[in-house]
Amino acid sequence: MYLAKVYVTLKPTVNDPQGRTVMGGLKSLGFDSVADVRIGKYLEVRLGEANRAQAEAKVKEMCDKLLANPVIEQYRYEVVEA
Question: What residues form DSSP beta bridges with 81?
């Protein structure tokens, strides 16, 4: 059994209005040193693959097909034994 930790974020060139809103809120709370905020997604996927290489291949396929929008998002993941 493997656990994939998937992090999906907007590409640096994509505008992030939600991140701007959060940054404004943080600044209004007195966190003046905040320079930028980017919002993303974190997912955990458990896989019953036979080995790590198969699990990583499945996670990459999942990200490419559903979990991330390759036009505006980038992703990274790590696969660990669960």
Answer: 2
CB count within 10 Å of CB 4 equals: 23
Give residue-wise pLDDT tens across range 32-52: 999 999 999 999 999 999 999
Q: What sign does the CA torsion over 19, 24, 28, 34 have?
A: positive
Alpha carbon distance 8, 1 (integer Å)? 22
**pLDDT bucket at 19, cuts 50 / 70 / 90:** very high
Classify burial at 2, counting beta carbons within 10 Å of its beta carbon; exposed 0-12, middle 13-18, buried 19 or more. Answer: buried
CA distance 82 to 79: 9
Domains, the chain, in order of start with CATH, read 2-81 (3.30.1280.10)
Q: Assign residue 30 a region (left: φ > 0; alpha: ψ between -120 and 50; beta: otherwise).
A: left
